[in-house]
Amino acid sequence: MLRTLSIVLPLALLIFAGGYLSGVHAAGGARVYELRTYTTFDGKLDALNARFRNHTTRIFEKHGMKNIGYWTPMDSPKKENTLVYIISHDSREAAKASWDAFRNDPEWKKVAAESEKDGKINQKVESVFLEPTDYSKLK
């Protein structure tokens, strides 16, 4: 049930954000959304949030990824080790290019190395690409 909530809640918030983002789409089609769930090692969620807050979101934008929203579960045990977020891309091809550029960005490599000097942060990363339905307010 918690796993379902960790997917449903961000999607509900994404739908709610439709008014804010409606009309934001790639030429010739709908944007592609990516739902990502990060599970950290014990005690590392604060470090992950700091890395996103201070660096990652800005570097995402630099590489064409649009930050939609970031959430942490409200209930244990996931609230201690889980970050859920949604970003968007102009297309699936743009997503691949953006992720490749991000992973090879010297600034990101430095940030990642510095943030993991006391050990790895992420235990597991899940990614799901989503496309809007024909009745979605968010396209």
Q: What topology emerges from the helices and strands here?
A:
Blueprint: H1 2-16, H2 18-21, E1 32-40, H3 45-62, E2 66-71, E3 82-89, H4 92-104, H5 106-115, E4 122-130
Antiparallel strand pairs: 1-3, 1-4, 2-3
Write a structural description.
It is a single chain. The chain has a single domain, classed as Alpha-Beta Plaits. By secondary structure, the chain is of the alpha+beta class. The chain has helices at 2-16, 18-21, 45-62, 92-104, 106-115; strands at 32-40, 66-71, 82-89, 122-130. The radius of gyration is 15 Å and the shape is globular. A 4-stranded antiparallel β-sheet has the order 2-3-1-4, with helices on both faces.
Key structural traits:
139 residues, four-stranded antiparallel sheet, 43% helix, 5 helices, alpha+beta, Alpha-Beta Plaits
Strand content: 15-25%
CATH C-level: Alpha Beta
In total, the number of domains comes to 1
Structural class by sheet pairing and helices: alpha+beta
Please give the number of β-strands: 4
Per CATH, which architecture? Answer: 2-Layer Sandwich
Average of per-residue pLDDT values:
86
Question: Strand sequence of the main sheet, in spatial order?
Answer: 2-3-1-4
DSSP helical segment count: 5
- What is Rg? 15 Å
Write down the overall geometry.
globular
Weakly predicted, low-confidence segments? 14-28
Order of helices and strands: HHEHEEHHE
State the share of residues found in helices, binned by percent: 40-55%
Reported for the largest beta sheet, the result is: 4 strands, antiparallel
The name of the CATH topology is: Alpha-Beta Plaits
**CA(first)-CA(last) distance:** 28 Å
